[in-house]
Amino acid sequence: MKLKNAVVLALTFLLLATSAMAEPSDAGKKLLARTFAFKHKEADKAAAIIKPLMSAEGTINLQPSTNSFVVTDRPENMKSISSAIAQYDVAPRQFRIVVRIVAASRVAAENVPKIDEELKEVAANLTALRFNAFEDLGERTIEAKEGETGRFQLETGYSANFQIGEYDPSSDSVKVSDFVLSKVQGSAQQTDVAPLLKTTLNLKLGRMVILGASKVPDSQRALMIVVVAQR
Amino acid sequence: MTCESFRARFHKDTEDAELLAHVRECDACLDHAANLDADIIFRAIGGEIVPPGGVDAFVDDVMRQVRLRDAETSLAQHRVLSWPRRLAVAATLIAGITGALLVNRVERTQPHQFGPVQRAALRHLTTKPVVETYASEKATIVEVPAEQAAGDVQIVMIFDENLPADL
After folding, report:
1. Is A29 an 8 Å CB contact of chain B?
2. What ipTM goes with this model?
3. Which end of chain B is more exposed for a tag (fewer CB within 10 A), N or C?
4. pTM of the full predicted structure?
């Protein structure tokens, strides 16, 4: 009787173990397909947004005529994909872009000026870059929605214009496209606005970005563009 | 003796020599008598049966045979397993191997916890490059390591020969 029980137990365990081993491989092969239609954003841009969230088996089948696509991927990935799309395909959101222009330079130790209160945070980050003197050239806060243009002009002669791009939920960042920083140059009789640089930035919300520009790495002077994007 | 007189005189446990002699010769009366007294057959045979070589030799021979059979059975049981035992051993072996495979799989799939969902979450945390494009191709763009920044600050330096000296 004991022997019979042992045989039954062993066979039961064997069956359970076999099914347990078979289950993951079956689950691994299981893929879900789901159609996403877009109301506010373009499907091809959304495809680029969700691509990093997909597994190697995942596919996207774009359907431009209906501004939609079909995503095929593992069920567990589908959750994060759906969530990212839900965050992405919304009416244009408004963002606040705070821009401060700071002139940073390296001066002799005895000539180091006192750092203004509002520049202390920036200065703390720039001392590692050999700069020890900082001049505030102005600050502006621009509020604009996705797709809108922002521009500002400072009394110090600097001006900028840019376009607020789309918010990327996968990196919690907003794109600031075609950021052109210009400077008024010339004499009192004849002034000219000269573009200094043109760039496209990805700004993570809430993170301060210090974009420094100089001719060469060992320049004694650099222009610092301090940018913070907020919701 | 006639069969009629045998049946008239026969009774259970009889030792009558004439009756016993008639039983040895007449099958019909033997059947009749055996119905009334089963032991009549043995009494009718008569005499003492002694095996060749004597009773002791016979008993020794029987016991030797018994011991020999026991030994053979014991050895056979050790050599050959019955089918339930074979099944139990096979099932135990397979269960053991399966268990080992499962454990191995679990150990190997520990990084699987960095499966698609977790990888997605990690990617979610990664940031895009701050400077996606820059107008001048001659420029060098350097992202300063986050360790050199105080707090949640990202520093990026652009070194561009085309920039004016008096920025």
Report:
1. no
2. 0.75
3. N
4. 0.58
